[in-house]
Amino acid sequence: MPFKKLLVAYDGSEGAKAAMRVAIEMTAALGGTLLAVWVRSALPHYPETPSEVSEESEAAEAFFAKLGQDVERFAKDAGIDIAFQMVAGNSAQGILTVAKEEAVQLIVVGNRGHSGLWDRLLGHTADRVSENAHCSVLIVR
User: Model confidence over 73-112: pLDDT tens digits?
Assistant: First the structure.
């Protein structure tokens, strides 16, 4: 079955950029559609000050805007449209939820992202996605 609807996890890391390049190549070759997703971590559960939550939220929005500029550049360079969205929560769960809601046929992820410490303690996001996805998963090195 050809993959016509792809999702790529994008956090701006080198692994995510490699995954984006592969996802773009596949989308262009197969004539499909591409959705890029960034999963932002949850806001602090116990903020030290009332302004901490708004500061974290503003920082996340600014980072998402920067990632959006990256995605726009990738799309322009490749000559394709790439939809981009942000979800909050656990990285693997966010990717899997969007993939299922959007009925994607292939999830493309880099083998490493920005969450180095948590990856070493809990297992890589790519591993969790590949173990629990409803569809095929391509892990790009």
Answer: 999 999 999 999 999 999 999 999 999 999 999 999 998 7
Q: Phi, psi (5° rounding) for residue 74?
A: -55, -45
Q: Where are the domains of the chain?
A: 5-115+126-140
Question: For the domain with range 5-115+126-140, which CATH number is right: 3.30.540.10, 3.40.50.300, 3.40.50.620, 3.30.360.10?
Answer: 3.40.50.620
CA distance 99 to 44: 26
All residues at 6 or more sequence positions from 102 whose CB lies less than 8 Å from its CB, including other chains: 5, 7, 35
Identify the three-state secondary structure at position 9.
strand
Write down the pLDDT at residue 79: 95
The pTM of this model reads 0.87
Are residues 43 and 53 in contact, defined by beta-carbon separation less than 8 angstroms?
A: yes
Name the stretches of the chain with pLDDT < 50: 118, 120-123
pLDDT for residue 124: 82
Amino acid sitting at position 20: M
Number of alpha carbons in the 13 Å side-chain half-sphere of residue 58: 5
